[in-house]
Amino acid sequence: MRFDVISLFPEMFEAITKYGITSRAHARNIYSVNVINPRDFSQDNHKTVDDRPYGGGPGMVMLADPLAKSINLAKQNQLGLGFKPYVIYFSPRGAVLNHQKVMALSQMQGLILLAGRYEGVDERLINALVDEEVSIGDYVLSGGELPSMALIDAVVRQLPEVLGDADSAVEDSFVNGLLDYPHYTRPEILCLDDSEEQKVPEVLLSGNHAKIREWRLKQSLLLTRAKRPDLLAARSLTKEEARLLKEIGAENN
Ligand code: ADE
Q: If you measure from the C-alpha of residue 86 to the centroid of ligand 1, how many angstroms do you get, rounded to a whole number?
């Protein structure tokens, strides 16, 4: 998969290409990131890429022209590879990224990601050249680079053969519309600072894989109901999930 990213800070993207799972996938050419700097397309000696907003107010707005030239280069790159260009602009006013969206984007061969800075970009650039606006949450960041990297990381994890254990992505949070179950590793009994001794749940030591699977599903249901009831409300329950939730109810009475 190919990402053409438009950003004033190309070095930031080393955070994904140089570290961890996304670094290994990058080294194996499972995906590539090409960063285009709009400053390379500015028209004056000062390499200006922003200007004051019409109507006044705080901050600066990114000029349409260097961004349009950057997007057009990205489109040429993607068309040259035979990919249909699709342009995403990161902004708090977009639909919030979720697992479903990540899965849909992971099916694409290429994406063009526009990372804005300052107060945003000239609205006419968005009207003319952006296919979709995406947010990563209801808060404001200083630019679109971190959202771009969040999207690339989440999408790359879903590409075939990126994760070592074939099941790792399958059992992640959100995959079945539920939060992930709790994880434990050695030692069996743990006492941190002045807190009480905590034991690994017995069932996980039992070697009974059917029981372990059921316990994990039950924990996922409990956690989702407690922390993200909206996720449960958004989907119907399987027969097994309904039975487990009923059991949870009975245990609590
Ligand atoms: N740019 C600034 N804040 C953002 C957010 N929350 N999501 C996506 N892009 C942004």
A: 19
Residues 130 and 89: beta-carbon distance below 8 Å: yes
Active-site residue, 123 included: no
Model confidence at 167: pLDDT above 70: no
Please name the amino acid found at residue 32: S
Which protein residues touch ligand 1 with a CB less than 6 Å away?
90-92, 135-137, 139-141, 144, 147
Q: How far apart are CA 49 and CA 65, in angstroms?
A: 9
Predicted structure pTM score:
0.95
pLDDT tens, position by position, 76-104: 999 999 999 999 999 999 999 999 999 99
**Residue 2 bridge partners (DSSP):** 32, 110
**CB-CB contact of 15 with 44 (8 Å):** no
Q: Tell me where in the chain the CATH 3.40.1280.10 domain(s) lie.
A: 2-166
Count the Cβ atoms, other than its own, within 10 Å of residue 82: 8
CATH number of the domain located at residue range(s) 171-252 in this protein: 1.10.1270.20
What DSSP character marks residue 136? S
Out of 1.10.3720.10, 3.90.1720.10, 3.40.1280.10, 3.40.50.1360, which CATH number does the structure's domain 2-166 have? Answer: 3.40.1280.10
Contact present, 74 and 6 (Cβ < 8 Å)? yes
